[in-house]
Amino acid sequence: WKTAWELFGYCEGSISPTASPFFDRLGRYDGECPEEYMMSGDYQADDLVAVTVSSSPSRRIVYRCKPFPFEGHFSQGAYYPTGPYGYVSWNIKGYCRSQPSMSPSLSRRPSPMPSSQ
Q1: For position 35, what pLDDT does the model report?
Q2: How far apart are CA 113 and CA 107, in angstroms?
Q3: In a 3-state reduction of DSSP, which class is residue 36?
Q4: pLDDT digits (tens, 9 = 90+) for 36-49
Q5: pLDDT reading at 101 higher than 50
Q6: Cys-Cys crosslink for 29: which of 52, 62, 63, 76, Cβ 3.0 to 4.6 Å?
Q7: DSSP string across 38-97
Q8: What pLDDT, in 10s, does the model give residues 50-94?
Q9: With contact defined as beta carbons under 8 Å apart, do 96 and 27 qualify?
Q10: Contact between 89 and 64 (Cβ < 8 Å)
Q11: CB neighbour list of residue 44: distance below 8 Å, 6 or more residues apart
């Protein structure tokens, strides 16, 4: 291997996984988190999708469909946003944090109308 490779240095730290993805270089997407990408989706140019990369805390990466001539690949196997050829059809827009779903709340019953006398 020494004739084929040149040593540049050694790594420091461990190879143990981190608690959640690290988003230092990826900016936060300002809009609402779009719907999760679905392979069966019918996507058009400029559509936004999200791909979940962490469930705790909940974080998603937002992608935008590229315009013509790339639009034919949006739902093809290897061209999904995080697939091996995803860069061909999708642009990364940033990350977003899923908002917790709101629990249904009971509304107060309206107070009875005062009777006029």
Answers
A1: 93
A2: 17
A3: strand
A4: 999 888 888 999 99
A5: no
A6: 62
A7: -TT----TT-EEEEEEEETTEEEEEEEE--TTSGGGTTSGGGSTTSTTHHHHEEEEEEE-
A8: 999 878 777 889 999 998 887 777 777 788 898 888 888 999 999
A9: no
A10: no
A11: 65, 71, 74
Placement of tokens 């977003």 in the chain: 96
How far, in Å, CA of 93 to CA of 20, rounded?
Answer: 19
Contact 60, 53 (CB under 8 A): yes
Q: For tokens 């908002």, what's the residue? A: 99
Structure token digits, residue 52: 């979940």
Q: In the structure, what pLDDT confidence band is assigned to residue 2 with cuts at 50, 70 and 90?
A: low
Whole-angstrom distance, CA of residue 49 vs CA of residue 60:
9
